[in-house]
Amino acid sequence: MTIRSHPFGPVLGGALVLYLAGVVTAPEAVRDLECSPEGPIEHASHVVLLAVLALFVAAAAAARRRAAGRAPFACAVLWCVYLGLLLLEEIDFGRLYGVDLGHSFLQRTLGAPNLHNAPGRASSLIGWAQVWIAAPMAGYFLAALIPSPAFRRRLERLAPFAPVMADALLFLALACLAVALDSVKPLDLRLGAGSPAATACPHSPLPLFQLLAYVLIGIVAGRALRTLRAEAR
Known about the structure:
71% of the residues lie in helices and 0% in strands. The protein is built from twelve helices and no strands. The chain has helices spanning 8-25, 27-35, 40-64, 71-89, 103-110, 120-126, 129-142, 149-156, 165-184, 186-191, 196-199, 206-232. The two termini are 23 Å apart. Residues 121-128 have low confidence and may be disordered.
């Protein structure tokens, strides 16, 4: 698979164009989206994350029935655990839907309805959420760029869950764009740095790029599931 044929390329390019077009033509609307702690972007993230988790659960079940080694099944299970932790990290989103997924227990025991806002010792253990969220993604996708033949042979044992070069390059592009836009802050430039509109609330494009990262992971899960089902026929 090449970057041209990879389905995430148009998704990333389209999201970037729409974001920058929104910054230019409707900066106040973009600001309101970014300022909303549980707005459309985070709602979409929750839905996509649940869908990706469901894909990996189905892929893990298909890999379990496969005769060729345990590594693919173990990889799928690790993805399920990781995605489950991502959901638990923002467990208070259940309040938006009138469902207590455990946020009341966290509020009583940790003093916050989710993990990343927990004070004291809990915060020192899990307050570095951006690190533990990003590190597994980066480690998985960027592994495809390691040139060592021996390492690549080991990586191929994870097939059909092994990342390909196009996955890695698109993830790298996603990460670089996220850092660049969060550093340059084009929305602040458009609104006028220091203006009441720009300082009304903290805002960042990072939630959008986190959503896009979930989409990329979902593409990997869907590709693996299709391969496994094709092999089973």
